[in-house]
Design goal:
By secondary structure, the protein is mainly α. It has a domain at 49-78. The protein has 2 helices and no strands. The two termini are 40 Å apart.
């Protein structure tokens, strides 16, 4: 059992695993913009609506409040 009052005896670096760096990721903003354009042009499904944006703003604001106050904050339904 981990005791925060005692120094760690495990060699954490020896437990690390090499992760291959062989996948290239596209710019996230560009990828989401392309999804939006596909939605507009092809009438494809689009997951992020006004409510998703509002929830994102709410989460960001509550995250800042949580950090400022040093406590967990419950996220109410919109």
């Amino acid at each position: 059992m981990w005791n925060p009052d005692l120094p760690a005896t495990e060699d954490f670096r020896s437990q690390w695993q090499v992760v291959p760096d062989n996948e290239e990721f596209d710019n996230g903003f560009k990828a989401q913009w392309e999804l939006f354009l596909r939605h507009v042009v092809e009438d494809a499904p689009y997951s992020w609506d006004l409510w998703a944006g509002a929830r994102g703003v709410q989460l960001a604001e509550l995250g800042l409040q949580s950090a400022r106050e040093g406590r967990r904050i419950e996220i109410p339904e919109l």
